[in-house]
Amino acid sequence: MIGPWTTAGRGSTPPPGGARIPFPTVDEVSRHCLDADEPETVHIEVHLPGRVDPARLRAAFRQALLTHPRALVREVPGRSLHRTLAWEQTGEPDGEPVNFTGRGPEALARARARALTDCPSLALSPPIRLDVVETADADGGAGADGGNGGNGSVRAEPFAPAGTVLLLTLHHTALDAPSGLRILATTAERYAGLAAVRIPGRPRPAAARPERGTSGGTGRTVRTRPVRLAPDSRPAPARARAVGNGMLLADLPVPPRAAPTGTLPPWTVNDRLLVAVTLMIARWNLAHGRPAGPVRLTMPVDDRPRGTGMPMGNGTRLVEVPMTAEDPRDTRLLTGERPDPAALERLLRATARRTRALTADPGSPMGAAADLLTAPLLPVGVRGALTRGARRAAASWTSTALVTNVGRVPYALDFGDAGRASAVWFSAPARMPRGLSVAAASTGGRLHVALRWSRALLADASGADLLRLFEESMAAASLTPGEPRRHDARRPEPTTDGARSAQDHHERSS
Q1: Mean pLDDT confidence for 104-120
Q2: Which of 146, 147, 164, 150 shows the shortest CA–CA distance to 423?
Q3: Which of 123, 188, 333, 437 has the fewest CB atoms inside 10 Å of its own CB, making it the most exposed?
Q4: For residue 416, with 0-12 CB atoms within 10 Å meaning exposed, 13-18 middle and 19 or more buried, which class applies?
């Protein structure tokens, strides 16, 4: 018996070295549905103003892994007739997870591309890779051709001056973005020789009073099939041959949080992000001959503490937020080139009520159906076939997009003489049938957003067009009612993942 560690996100004391941890629901579902064409990677990118010492960084990262031994796991080999999948804690890394990959924009582009295409192995501990790239002046992340391997599809200014980029890649079957950020925070503490800073818990709202005619204000009483993001104009055979994910990064101002009005909850930066993604999808679909809605967004909710005792693994639960306007007439008002401010305010208020109710309502990580599919009643092989079949059957009911917001990064990420993090991006997998994920984190008063898509849905040029729509939608959602439209003095700076040329080669050779 393994006690509280049988489920990720519970307990704070790891079992002794070599102990086995049965896969929790989220890990098992992910393991059953792995696809080599769509790697299940989480990418975290931290920009530092200075240089790091290789030996010190390797030692600090190893110490961080020992501090969080739940990250030092590998999958226990098993047979399809076994009843459980399990992790084995190794106590030590199986190899060297830190790689110094060179200097310059090409090195960073290659590291980003690798983060989207090359999953760390589940058979080796830890299922984590840390690539370290030195940037020079005018490198930063883009360069004159947008950092896309020379194909010139996106032109952008550099993200950062000379310094270092730490690019952490996680296998999402084992770990999530908050776990990766905690490991990097501990690495920074060990590197700089600083004591761990106490991180306050994440406040969650009290359960909201149910709205009349709804279920807790979440919109669950009306279950409609969500609209999909329209694919681009490539022929269907070309999209079918495309593999992997594309990614763009943007640096935006953090929008202000609205002041409360009477008993109505104020909308947050997260609510603005959800509304902006909804406007982006609606406008894109209308431009491509698809209806504007209904849009449903999957939103991870994480209640774990952020201190050094934070449980590693996949500790979030997934909730679905219906993004329909309460007044059907608002749809037309919201999808114009300049969304109607009154309709936008109504959608923001409705979204605030829904997210407040959903985050206050506890539940299982993926719902009762996933818990049933992964219950150890049948052999692993049978459960895997059932899980994949259920995923295919539910494809048309899958939410429109995944929107992950970790909010303000709670860690200083202070690497001593290498400096504090000036920017933090992360991205989540964008697998079909959803095919689209938006991830956001804020650092130093800036909102760092990663747009990631399946190349079976969008080509890189289409992804750049979608990002421009998001920037416009976020600017509209960030306005306070009655405030005139304004432009940020610092224009968002997209950068590609540097892997499009590989995709073009694949399509030509298929």
Answers
A1: 92
A2: 164
A3: 123
A4: middle
* 401 vs 228: CA distance, rounded Å: 8
CA distances from 267 to 134, 260, 261, 338, 351 (A): 39, 8, 10, 20, 8
Listed in sequence order, the residues at least 6 apart from 21 whose beta carbon sits closer than 8 Å to its beta carbon are: 2, 5, 6, 15, 70, 73, 86, 87, 88, 89
Alpha helices in 93-235 (DSSP H): 105-117, 177-192
Q: Please identify which residue in the block is written with the tokens 């296998």.
A: 171
Q: Which DSSP category does 396 fall into?
A: G
Which pTM value belongs to this model? 0.84
Token pair for residue 40? 């299940």
Between CA 298 and CA 283 the distance in angstroms is: 19
Q: What are the residues facing 240 on neighbouring strands? A: none
Domains defined for the chain, CATH in brackets? 20-192 (3.30.559.10), 236-405+430-509 (3.30.559)
Structure token pair of residue 208? 């909201």
The pair of three-digit structure tokens given for residue 390, joined into one six-digit string: 């259920």
Nearest to 434 by CA among 459, 457, 451: 457
CA 303 to chain centroid: 16
Asked if the peptide bond before residue 231 counts as cis, ω within 30 degrees of 0, the response is no
**141 touches 108 (CB < 8 A):** yes
Cα separation, 421 vs 468, in Å, equals 26
CA 446 to chain centre: 17
451 bridge partner residues = 248, 438
> What order of strands is seen across the sheet that includes strand 245-253?
245-253, 446-454, 436-443, 401-408, 296-301, 317-322
Collect all residues with Cβ–Cβ distance below 8 Å to 208 and sequence separation of at least 6. 216, 217, 265, 353, 356, 357, 360
Which of these, 155, 252, 250, 230, lies nearest to 461 by C-alpha position? 155
Q: 433 preceded by cis ω (within 30°)?
A: yes
> Which residue shows structure tokens 């150890």?
376
Statement: residue 503 has pLDDT above 60:
no
Instruction: Tell me how long the chain is.
Output: 510
pLDDT digits (tens, 9 = 90+) for 135-183: 875 444 433 233 333 332 232 333 445 799 999 999 999 999 999 999 9
Contact criterion met (CB below 8 Å) for 373 and 365: no
Dist CA 34 CA 47 (whole Å): 30
Query: Rounded to an integer, what distance in angstroms lies between the CA atom of residue 64 and that of residue 56?
Result: 12
**pLDDT per position as a tens digit, 22-31:** 999 999 999 9
From CA 205, how far away is CA 207, in angstroms rounded? 6
Cα–Cα distance, 87 to 23 (Å, whole number): 7
Cβ-based burial of 96 (10 A; exposed 0-12, middle 13-18, buried ≥19)? exposed
CA distance 477 to 494: 20
Residues 6+ apart with CB under 8 A from 402: 297, 298, 300, 428, 430, 434, 436, 437, 438
